[in-house]
C-alpha cells in the first residue's frame, strides 16, 4: 500500500500557477512562488485517503464566493464539503453525500463546492493557492462530529478516508 504522502504522486501535476503576490496572510499565495495545478485526483475507492481541511462556507467567510453546486452560501452548522477538482468531477458529485471517517467516527456531508486544484492566488480564491488534488474541505461542524475541536493540533489539516 502506498504511504499517505505518496498519494499525490499517482496523479501528476498538470502545470504550475505562478503567484502574482501583493497579499499578505497566513494562507495567501507568496509572491514569486509557483504552485502545482491538478486536473485529476487519486482514484475513488471504498476508503479513499485524503486530507481534511476546514472551510467557512458562510457569506463573508474564507470560502469566498457562493458554493459552485447551488450558488448559495451554507451555514457552518451544516455538514457540507468541497472536493478537489478531480473528485468534484465537473459537478457530478454535487448534492451527493460522502462518508468521511477519522478518529473511529464517520460523518455524512453533502458536496456543495469544488476545492479548485487548477486556479488560485486571486480574489475568487481568497488569494490562496490551488488546492492539492486530495482535499476534502469541510465545514466546522464536520470537524466537530469527528471529535476534533478548534483547540486540537489536528484541526484544519487531518488525514481521513472518504467514500
Explained architecture:
With 163 residues, the chain is mainly beta. It has helices at residues 7-10, 85-88, 140-145, and strands spanning 16-18, 34-36, 48-54, 80-84, 97-102, 105-115, 135-138, 157-162. The strands form two sheets. The chain has a six-stranded mixed beta barrel. Strands 1-2 form a two-stranded antiparallel ribbon. The longest helix has 6 residues, at 140-145. The radius of gyration is 15 Å and the shape is globular.
Descriptive tags:
163 residues; mainly beta; Barwin-like endoglucanases; two-stranded antiparallel sheet; RlpA-like_sf; secreted; RlpA-like protein double-psi beta-barrel domain-containing protein; Kiwellin-like; signal
Task: Write the topology of this structure.
Layout: H1 7-10, E1 16-18, E2 34-36, E3 48-54, E4 80-84, H2 85-88, E5 97-102, E6 105-115, E7 135-138, H3 140-145, E8 157-162
Parallel strand pairs: 3-7, 4-6
Antiparallel strand pairs: 1-2, 3-8, 4-7, 5-6, 5-8
Overview in brief:
The protein contains 3 helices and 8 strands, in the order αββββαβββαβ.
Largest sheet: 6 strands, mixed, barrel
Mean pLDDT across every amino acid position: 89
User: Which CATH C-level class is it?
Assistant: Mainly Beta
Task: Report the count of strand segments.
Answer: 8
The structural domain count equals: 1
**Oligomer category:** single chain
**Beta-strand residue percentage:** 25-35%
CATH superfamily: RlpA-like domain
At CATH level 3, the topology is Barwin-like endoglucanases
Give the name of the CATH architecture. Answer: Beta Barrel
| Overall geometric form | globular
Q: Please bin the fraction of helical residues.
A: under 10%
**SSE-based structural type:** mainly beta
Q: Which strand order does the major sheet show?
A: 3-7-4-6-5-8
Amino acid at each position: 500500500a502506498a504511504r499517505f504522502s505518496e498519494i499525490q504522486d499517482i496523479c501528476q501535476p498538470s502545470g504550475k500557477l505562478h503567484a502574482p503576490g501583493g497579499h499578505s496572510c497566513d494562507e495567501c499565495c507568496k509572491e514569486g512562488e509557483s504552485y502545482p495545478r491538478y486536473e485529476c485526483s487519486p482514484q475513488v475507492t471504498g476508503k479513499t485517503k485524503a486530507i481534511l481541511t476546514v472551510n467557512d462556507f458562510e457569506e463573508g467567510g474564507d470560502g469566498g464566493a457562493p458554493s459552485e453546486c447551488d450558488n448559495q452560501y451554507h451555514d457552518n452548522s451544516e455538514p457540507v464539503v468541497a472536493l478537489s477538482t478531480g473528485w468534484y468531477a465537473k459537478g457530478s458529485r454535487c448534492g451527493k453525500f460522502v462518508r468521511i471517517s477519522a478518529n473511529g467516527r464517520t460523518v455524512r456531508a453533502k458536496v456543495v463546492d469544488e476545492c479548485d486544484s487548477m486556479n488560485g492566488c486571486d480574489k475568487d480564491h481568497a488569494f490562496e493557492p490551488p488546492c492539492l488534488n486530495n482535499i476534502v474541505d469541510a465545514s466546522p461542524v464536520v470537524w466537530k462530529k469527528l471529535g476534533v475541536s478548534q483547540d486540537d493540533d489536528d484541526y484544519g489539516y487531518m488525514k481521513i478516508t472518504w467514500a
